[in-house]
Amino acid sequence: MPKCKSKTKFLPATFAWLLLLGTTALFFYFPCVKWYILEKHWYAVPIFQGVITLFVLINFSMATFMDPGVIPRASPDEDRDDDFRAPLYRNVEINGITVRMKWCVTCQFYRASASAVQPLLRLQQLHRDL
Predict the structure, then answer these.
(1) Which residues, other chains included, contact 85 with Cβ-Cβ below 8 Å and sequence gap of 6+?
(2) Residue range 7-22: average pLDDT?
(3) With 90 as the cut, is the pLDDT of residue 20 above it?
(4) What distance lies between CA 66 and its chain's CA centroid?
(5) Are 123 and 108 in contact (CB under 8 A)?
(6) Could you tell me if residue 107 is inside a domain?
(7) How far is CA 20 from the centre of its chain?
(8) Rounded (10°) CA dihedral 119, 120, 122, 125
(9) Are the CB atoms for 64 and 71 separated by under 8 Å?
(10) What count of other Cβ atoms lies within 10 Å of the Cβ of residue 55?
């Protein structure tokens, strides 16, 4: 994986911080000071908004500067215990016809392919029609 240059690594975080602090400053100057405090004398709105802004800045700084951590890889012994090793193919006899069934990793059981089952379905259809 290619490494980022130091300039390009800090550019998105710097832009996000400038955007967050710039819009917050504009909000606190124009609506809060000009309208809520000077005209309406509502001091509770800027105080409440200041508390919310403080929580936003704390969470944003934690998201920016904290290490997200790494989930460690499983050891080979642990990985081997979790994996169910089964033979890839199994031959099964159904109504006298041998059908090759393949192990499905997702479903964790053997599944017959559609081409292997179609002759059996045709035989059943013929027996029903007679």
Answers:
(1) none
(2) 89
(3) yes
(4) 20
(5) no
(6) yes
(7) 26
(8) 180
(9) no
(10) 9
Summarize pLDDT for 28-63 with one digit per residue, the tens.
888 888 888 888 888 888 899 999 999 999 999 998
User: Tokens standing for 26?
Assistant: 């504009």
**Average pLDDT over every residue of 6-15:** 82
Partners of residue 103 on adjacent β-strands: 110
Total structural domains within the chain: 2
Distance separating alpha carbons of residues 98 and 117, to the nearest angstrom: 10
> Which DSSP symbol is given to 112?
E
The pLDDT tens digits for 68-104 are 777 677 676 655 544 556 567 888 887 777 888 887 7
In a domain, 38, yes or no: yes
CA distance 7 to 63: 19
User: Domain range for residue 20?
Assistant: 9-65
Condensed to tens digits (0 to 9), the pLDDT of residues 101-124 reads 887 777 777 777 766 556 656 655
Answer yes or no: is 15 within a domain: yes
